[in-house]
Amino acid sequence: MVLPILEYPDPRLKKVAARVTDFGPDVARLVRDMAETMYAAPGIGLAATQVDVHKRVIVIDISEARDDLRVFVNPEILSAEGEAECEEGCLSVPGYYDKVTRAAKVRVRAQDEHGRTFELDADGLLAVCIQHEMDHLVGKVFVDYLSPLKRARLATRMKKRQRMAG
Ligand code: NI
After folding, report:
1. pLDDT value at residue 97
2. What class is the 11-165 domain?
3. Where are the domains of the chain?
4. What is the distance in A from the centroid of ligand 1 to the CA of 63?
């Protein structure tokens, strides 16, 4: 099922997600719905926060063929190194892109939808995407890194857009 995506500056995007402790059918269903929502958008990553479910779950697919779904439940960054600036966008901030500086490489520990723990070394777009989606889980959107002036302009623009969408 494709779920509605919250749009900035919706205050629900600021909620902090809770750890998943029960790996039952609810998590499997959430992951399926989130993947479907991400592919339909289309986007390369989605955090549960963006569909108003406040659990630590993210899905990512940065592949060209859109056939390499990665699921991270309860993700943690074990180590980070370097710096990389990348132009980012977000399904919750449609039509807006801007540069953000993040760690160039990260080592992540997470669980899959069955609760199995894995570790992963990521760099490039995958590293950026993991950090971007993990920010959502603590109530942060990439535009929070922008200057207050840019953010104020963006908030006005988003409100106008949401009024027009009715
Ligand atoms: Ni996002």
Report:
1. 95
2. alpha beta
3. 11-165
4. 17
Q: Ligand 1: distance of its center to the CA of 133 in Å?
A: 6
The catalytic site residues sit at: 133
**Which residues place a Cβ less than 5 A from the ion ligand 1?**
90
DSSP state string for 7-71: -TT-GGGGPPPBPP---SHHHHHHHHHHHHHHHHTT-SEEEGGGGT--BSEEEE---TTS---EE
Bridge partner residues of 119 (DSSP): 109
- Region 115-125: what's the mean pLDDT? 98
Give the Å distance between the CA of 142 and the centre of ligand 1: 7
Cα distance between residue 82 and residue 105, in whole Å: 6
Query: Around 67, how many Cα atoms within 13 Å sit in the side-chain half-sphere?
Result: 1
Check: CB of residue 117 under 8 Å from CB of residue 73. no
Please tell me the distance between residue 165's alpha carbon and the centre of ligand 1 in angstroms: 20
- The verdict on pTM exceeding 0.85 is yes
